[in-house]
Amino acid sequence: MHFDTSAVAHSVYIHWPFCPYRCHFCPFVALASHDQFMGRYHEVLKKEITDLIAKTGQKPLLKTIFFGGGTPSTYPNPLLLDMFGTLEGMFLFGKDIEITIEVNPGTVSLDQLKVWKEVGINRLSIGVQSLKDGVLQKMNRHQTADQVYFLLNNAKDYFDNLSVDLILGLPEVSEREWKDLLEEVVTWPIKHLSMYFLTIHENTQLYFQVKKNTVVLPADDAVVDLYYWSRDFLQEHGFEQYELSNFAKPGYESRHNTMYWERKPYYAFGLGACSFDGMRRFQNEQNLMKYMHGVEQGKSIISFSEELTPQQVRLERIMLGLRRREGVTCEAIMEGLGSEACADIARAIVQLREQKLLTDANGQLRLTPAGLALENQVIMQLSS
After folding, report:
1. Which CATH number belongs to the domain containing residue 361 in this structure?
2. Per-residue pLDDT tens for 20-30?
3. Which of 31, 139, 238, 267 is 20 to 30 A from 50 (CA-CA)?
4. Does residue 233 sit within a domain?
């Protein structure tokens, strides 16, 4: 199974897996202490891009590019400049293209900010997570509050569109400390904020620490209450919620992430990268040496692929739609179903409305605040 190169994809994700360290909560394809492979990996990335795009027989128009990781802010300046030469040779850049790079405080120099601006990067996604140095160090995240301030104070001179990531539910962060953090964050020169619940992923260092009770997490109810407070607080300070975990000043919603939530096709390149052609999903090899050898030798590097069934498509529409401000339409949920199944779903919608978990405005379904807390239950009732 291969990516359908006739698919109209306007977005590119590029994975840079290298990290100066590996956070204990990280589930992603990320490599610490592998910097000696950066140059070779960069060449392989370029070859993967040119090999696939050459098959399209055209220069696809791009509306978004996203450098994710790993830690893309460790991408050496000369190599990044070379990468943009490849991208500009293979694609057409839209007039108002959004180009994002993920950034970890403590890994950025002033020279990098200048280079990023010169090549056309116009959005920084900054992994703040917390301003409590001790908490982050226990999670093996070696950054400090001072490095966050340094980055923000300098990045604002080059970039208008700054986003920060925060993690809600970190151990040893009190309710007052979290509220103090948000009260400070809304004064920063940022346009976007992502607020994620701390998730315990299997086989991460944090997973084993929690199992051994060497790390104690806050109570779920307390974290959910803080989420509701945070959502209201951010709204009061001009950050509109447009997705379950994402808040933005008007006009600064992440266009790249919105593309994912709308299930649009996109290209993805790099170690473990996942692409989507509209009906099929593909994941690249996650072993660094196998990935690089495969690209260099012109062999397939796809380690997993699937063609989505109509039921999977429906489930994704429900899951992704309900996470967003716009919600999901009844029409999208019932598309392709028989009259009996449609009747079952209609009854489920009535029941969920009566339980005040869902609103229905002219066929546009949205989760209520109570429904947000029971999101999985709502999805099951609408998709079964």
Report:
1. 1.10.10
2. 999 999 999 99
3. 31
4. yes
In a domain, 286, yes or no: no
Per-residue pLDDT, averaged over 358-374, amounts to 86
- Domain extent at residue 363: 310-383
Contacts 24+ apart (CB under 8 A), 218-226: 218/169, 218/171, 218/173, 222/175, 223/168, 223/169, 223/197, 224/373, 226/168, 226/175, 226/178, 226/179
Whether residue 246 is predicted with pLDDT greater than 90 in this model: the reply is yes
Flag whether pLDDT at 363 surpasses 80: yes
pLDDT band at residue 374, thresholds of 50, 70 and 90? confident
Is there a single domain that holds both residue 16 and residue 162? Answer: yes
203 & 337 share domain: no
The pair of three-digit structure tokens given for residue 62, joined into one six-digit string: 């791009």
Number of domains in the chain: 2
284 found inside a domain: no
Residues 114-153 have pLDDT tens digits of: 999 999 999 999 999 999 999 999 999 999 999 999 999 9
- Higher pLDDT, residue 212 or 92: 92
| Last-in-domain residue among 261, 294, 318 | 261
Contact yes or no for 65/86 (Cβ under 8 A): no
Q: Is 157 exposed, middle or buried (0-12, 13-18, 19+ CB in 10 A)?
A: exposed
Phi, psi at 153, each rounded to 5°: -65, -30
Kindly report the pTM of this predicted structure. Answer: 0.94
Do 252 and 318 share a domain, yes or no? no
Same structural domain, 194 and 323: no
